[in-house]
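Q: Study each token:
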Amino acid sequence: MNTSIMITGANAGIGKETARQLALDKNTELIYLACRNLEKAKAAQKELTQATGRDIFKIIIMDISKLTTVKQAISTLSESIDALIMNAGGTGGKTPEKLTKDGVTEITAGNLLGHVVLVDELIKHQKLNNVALFASSEAARGVKQTGMKRPNLESNSVEEFISIFNGTKFKDNFDAMQVYGWIKYGGTLWMSSMARKNPDIKFISMSPGGTRGTQGMDDLPFVKRVLLKHIGMKLIMPLLGLSHSVQEGAKRFVEGINNPEFESGTFYASKENLLTGKVINQSTIWENFDNPSFQTNADKAIHSFV
């Protein structure tokens, strides 16, 4: 049973809705809202308390793209948590291709590297008891209907994953929407590797699906943002089974940490050609997700930046 849960990126969108749904379960005793902005975190805390009638939300400040803040936050955590939901991410802000001081692109830092350090710190300090869930995406396997191509790796070697995480793989053709899928692919493999290394903790990758009302597209160029977020996600994609509500997206995360039928080391997302509906094991669509060598290589590659 997961009585204490930490959610990154919890002040808005899917993260906030996930916190609300979890609080409706009386077995939930404490929810850490892991956010980078204190003012926004306080506003979310107040709204969630009012909406659920439960004063169980505690703020923990960390910017997942800045490793020092992640380590500092965990060092001040006084007790262990049962579950971690790694929801923070997006398309990397205004400069997704820019390198951070850790040597990865900003899109890698915000979606993956910070979460890698977060998990490592929790395990090192024995502060993670039951389950870790990584917000992956159908983009990790490709989504033809939305123009997101399947990550076309040549070897899935450590060196190739490093080139993805530092951006050199893409040279002058850095499209944040496409690179996002490659990063999620690498992150999903990392989670499966962690499952093999830590058999006492469940590691689940779960896509929230094509979710309306999220902030993941807010940093895209204006025209692309309008077309994808406001026209595509709200008007066209629901008719094609390619988008659903933020409540449905958050429900996947809630079930992901609580449903014993979900197996450690597995990536769950929508059926092929869909972004909504029932989730299935993605290795039935693309065998790469079940390749131990690829998993180990992605793990080694991302840890080379820590």
Observations:
- The mean pLDDT is 92.
- Residues 4-303 form a domain with the Rossmann fold fold (CATH 3.40.50.720).
- The first strand starts at residue 4 and ends at 8.
